[in-house]
Amino acid sequence: MSPVENVSDEVAARLTLTFDRSTVDLDALQRSAYALAAEATVDIRESGTDYSCTVFARTTEWSTDELAHRFRAEVNDQILRARIAKETEPLRNLVFALAFAQTGLVDIEDASDAEAGA
What we know:
Strand order of the largest sheet: 1-2-4-3
CATH architecture of one domain: 2-Layer Sandwich
CATH class of one domain: Alpha Beta
Low-confidence stretches: none
Structural class: alpha+beta
Radius of gyration: 20 Å
Largest sheet: 4 strands, antiparallel
Distance between the termini: 34 Å
Mean pLDDT: 85
Number of helices: 3
Strand content: 15-25%
Helix content: 40-55%
């Protein structure tokens, strides 16, 4: 993450944040933009080895500092959510397989074999 570029706007705060593409996925930025959609809109562009995100507040209640902190916090949250999902995928698959085995839709032995192969 890099410095914030403040741009004055008579209606609402606007700022540009830069994120290194090697450490932040586009998906995390897009999910963060969606999470803040009620308070702000975000324009995401590739710029060399970075993503440049221009954040536009929807109201005048937010300062550029508040907007920057909120967007960064959301990006960090989305990065961690993706990491946790990746790390817990095998366990989630096993839980789902066992749950479906209880319904008779999936054979429990097939579910155990699938997990062993993962």
